[in-house]
Amino acid sequence: MVNVLEAVNINKYFTDPVSFHVLRDITFNIKKGEFVSIMGKSGCGKSTLLYVLSTMDTDYTGELYLSGDRLTGRSGKELSAVRNSEIGFIFQFHYLLPEFSVLQNVMLPALKLARKSTAQIKDDAMHKLELLGIGDQAGKLASRISGGQKQRVAIARALINEPTIIMADEPTGNLDSKNSENVFNILRKLSHEQHLSLLVVTHDHDFAEKTDRIITMEDGRIIS
Amino acid sequence: MNWPVILSISKTHLLSRLKQSSIAALGVTFGIGTFITLVSFMTGLNHLLDNLILDRTPHVHLYNEIKPSEQQPVELLEKFAEGINIVHSVKPRQNQERIHNALPILEHLRKDARVRGVTPQVRAQVFYVAGSIKLNGIINGVDVMEEVRLFNLGDYIVSGEPQDLARNDNGILLGAGIAKKMSLDIGDKVQITTASGDLFQLKVVGLYQSGLAEIDNVQSYTNLKTAQRILGEGNSYITDVNLKLHDLEEAEPMSRELSKQYNLTAIDIKTANAQFETGTSIRNIITYAVSITLLIVAGFGIYNILNMMIYEKMNDIAILKATGFSGRDVKMIFISQAMLIGVVGGVIGLIFGYLISVLIDHTPFETEALPTIKTFPVNFNPVYYLIGIGFAVASTFFAGYLPARRAERIDPVEIIRGQ
Where in this chain does the record put each ABC transporter domain (chain A) (predicted)? Predict the structure, then answer.
């Protein structure tokens, strides 16, 4: 199978406030359609790794490939474009734009990409929202819906540009068990039905247990 | 760059903070409105004051000056060339007051491409006679219609029409000061005597008021022919030639050239009225200084509000960057917000400035000195409106640029991690 994401010998240091080796020789890959979770204690560097993989953090050594293309060393503008079209994000805190409607929040990354007409994007966005069972909330302001709904809007937004991989940082971190379950099922379904690759950083054992592969980290290293 | 998306984001940001945005825009409105009002009023006033003197001043004035010869005869003698010659009690050179060969000179000047118009004048020293009292006076014999066309004489005729003078060879446009002293009005007769004692009777066809009492108390206008008759001279007797040029800047070189060519004294407008330009430019400087200060204050307001907005919007900025908007996109979102504030505030400011200018333009302002002015003078030159909107856009751009550049540099990882 094809490697969707490949990390080779990634090292990262924090220099502030004291020099600290956060990521040590991280090498791993994710295959197409794989649902991978990263686990580890707080401070083991798993979120830091996710930010490096997400291309938002470029201060590292080593090499990063997405669908075989080398991402290391590219300009900020190119990386923005890659994030826009190839990577979908889901954060622990839902991070919607509060002044925009749910539908607009979902549409924005696609409008930025501008590969389709606005009408088409609107259709797509509606479709994604319905897929996640929140089509009826489309017209509401993003600040006016519940936490579980927000997380689903964030997932819809991550899906809108048909990315190659979805990265999530504690997607169920502050949801109750019912909503957690719900979000997991949605992600599971996406990976099964649409062969999306998923990389999820989580604390939640039950959640991780149900994924295809668990990467465990400790003190900046992958231990299993 | 995807402008529709960027603009729709900035529009949503602005509209969701309508109160803050309107206050920022109000700052610009106030600055631009004041600029327009000030500049319209100030330049209107400048125009008025300039016109008071400059518009009726010829660009080049040719006449024969009575003065001593520059070279005294003794200096021409070779015998004394080496010596120091002292001549006591030098008298002005015997010279005629009229311009020699005036008619051909006029003809020649009219053909000059630089010249917009030429008017001949005959200046006659007279006395206005009221019983046993004689008042000093000057009569200017003019081609009245040409004077109206070139030097706005019509603006200063407070009663009567210039045509009345043009039609009447015994008519006189009497200075308002003299008319008052002698209790004369249109239709009355006035007697004048010349220096040589000849007595003439003229009919008052109009009153002339320049706004400068010194002039109104002595000066009157008649037709060229009338003045020539008073002096007992023929129709080639011309004492002054006034030129109006197409380009004011040519006045000085041309006056030098004419002075040499015709051996006459030539005075150009700039030499004659140097102090007016100084006054005008100082008033302009004050106007711009005040307006620019106001706009800078408005600019700081926008800078502040955008800075605050960016603090509030840290999360949004992180989100936008995480979902694929580049730093440049984010910068443009904030710059376009600043400029939208500038354009909206600026346009409203222009409208306000215009309305206030109209109000000032309709405020009564009557003064003895300025007979033609009934309301405050206002200059509605569209150029100032362009400068105003240009300044609004430029100042808001700079006010928005610094905060926007900060937003461009925000590291999304720090924000997301900081939660």
Answer: 5-223
Give the DSSP per-residue string, B352-394.
Answer: HHHHHHHHHHTSB--BTTBTT--B------HHHHHHHHHHHHH
Which of A99, A105, A113, A174 would you mutate first to test chain B, the one with the most B CBs within 10 A? Answer: A99
Q: What count of residues does chain A have?
A: 224
Asked if A170 contacts A201 with a C-beta cutoff of 8 angstroms, the reply is yes
The answer to whether the bond into B403 is cis (omega within 30° of 0) is no
B217 and B289 assigned to the same domain? no
Chain B residues near residue A77 by CB distance under 8 angstroms: 326-328
Give residues 212 to 251 of B whose Cβ lies within 8 Å of A. none
CATH number, domain at A154? Answer: 3.40.50.300
Domain total in chain A: 1
By the 8 A CB rule, do A52 and A64 touch?
Answer: yes
Task: Tell me, yes or no, if B312 comes closer than 8 A to chain A by beta carbon.
Answer: no
A39 pLDDT above the threshold of 70 = yes
The Cα of B394 is separated from the nearest Cα of chain A by a number of Å equal to 27
Q: pLDDT category, B28, cuts 50, 70, 90? A: confident
Which residue of chain A is at minimal alpha-carbon distance from B16? Answer: A99
Predicted pLDDT of residue B277: 72
Q: Does A163 touch chain B (CB under 8 A)?
A: no
Summarize the confidence of residues B143-160 as an average pLDDT.
Answer: 86
Count of structural domains within chain B: 2
**Model confidence over A70-107: pLDDT tens digits?**
888 888 888 888 888 888 888 877 578 888 999 999 99
Q: Which residues of A touch B333 (CB under 8 A)?
A: none
Note down the domain range covering A170: 35-44+76-219
Q: What is the ipTM of this complex?
A: 0.87
Helix-then-strand count for chain B, H and E:
16, 10
- Looking at the structure, do residues B294 and B376 belong to the same domain, yes or no? yes
Task: Check whether B353 has a pLDDT greater than 90.
Answer: yes
CB B300 within 8 A of CB B359: no
In B323-382, the residues whose Cβ lies within 8 Å of chain A are: 323-329
Cα–Cα nearest to B331, from A80, A163, A99, A101: A80
Contact state of A96 with B319 under an 8 Å Cβ cutoff? yes
The residues with which A222 forms a beta bridge, in sequence order, are: A217
The mean pLDDT value of chain B amounts to 86
CA B220 – CA B202 distance, rounded (Å): 11
In a domain? residue A29: no
In this prediction, residue A196 has a pLDDT band, given cuts at 50, 70 and 90, of confident
Looking at the domain assignment, is residue A164 inside a domain?
yes
User: To the nearest whole number, what is the mean pLDDT of chain A?
Assistant: 86
Quick one: B132 and B20 in the same domain? no
